Amino acid sequence: MSEGKARKALGAALLVLASVFVAVAGVEVYLRVTGFSCEPYLSQVQFGWPHPKAIREAYVIDDDLFWITKKYRGQFDEARRNPPRIVFVGDSCTQIGSYDRQFAQLVESERPGMAVPFLNAGVAGWSSYQGLRQLERDVLGLDPDVVTIYFGWNDHWASFGIEDKDVASVLLPFGLSHLRVVQLFIKVRAVGLVEPGKITLARNRVPEEDYRANLERMVTLCREHGIRPVLLTAPSSHERGQEPEYLKRRWLHSLDDLVPMHRRYNDIVRQVAAQTGTPLCDLERVFDALPREEVRTAHFRKDGIHLNPSGDRIIAQALYETMRENGLVEHVLRPATTRNADGGGGGGA
């Protein structure tokens, strides 16, 4: 191309860019004059739990994971300094549970002089979508020997119009959040993702087919990095006809859906375990084998979702047996001087 033609092409390109800039600037001015504003930050996107106020006050917004605990980054910094041999990923059943510590204590009691360096990486409100992204970004680099995967509850709760996988596309990039043109684009994107007439309680946060895909991907990623995955089903004390009323007000289309839907998601965990040859700790069946009154009053909190220390003890025992049967216990042991990522020694908290 001759120098003259090159200059003409460059001039034409600059003219187009200038025209686009003027047009966008005009729209920006118009939107500001008319008072348009739409800022769908994460704290305004409804997940069920945590609710927007909790996200703002009790958590830290994360570009990839939506929200993390305030101590999350510190935990992983410590984990990089003192790598754990087993990482427990999951939702609030993992974050606030004690089965991680009880598992470590159980193993250590049978292996004098040895310790189980572990990291509890659970975060309340998380779905398997967030767990997958956490695994990719934060867990694989720790190079643990074993990762346990315990999700399900937040996956099947009803979303408020947008599935977890689409949330990132309606969040504003921080540096562009003040531009009304960008806000308009994001609003149009959000409206396009929500079914007409179903602004509240539309889809599940993670539909069944996506739940399956997320679990399969987590298993694959673990194995590609030499990590041994263990899948867990989510136990419950819920019974048909006795479902907690509060769940309907926020997370369910109908209380009648609760028990069968939860069991379907657990069935998916079993299917993925069977199809991929992954060790399965079937906690739902462990608790189903116990007297229902005992399960409800002795092992679960009132919500029928989270376990108390007695219930976590059963989880720890079941997980230990699963790992022993699959030859995994020896992989998580180190000399007793090893420290956990949370700063405790051995299997302590």
UniProtKB/TrEMBL annotation:
Gene Ontology MF terms in the entry: hydrolase activity, acting on ester bonds
Sequence ranges assigned to domain SGNH hydrolase-type esterase in this UniProt record: 88-313
InterPro entries: Iah1-like (IPR045136), SGNH_hydro (IPR013830), SGNH_hydro_sf (IPR036514)
The protein, known as: Lysophospholipase L1-like esterase
Lineage: Bacteria, Pseudomonadati, Thermodesulfobacteriota, Desulfovibrionia, Desulfovibrionales
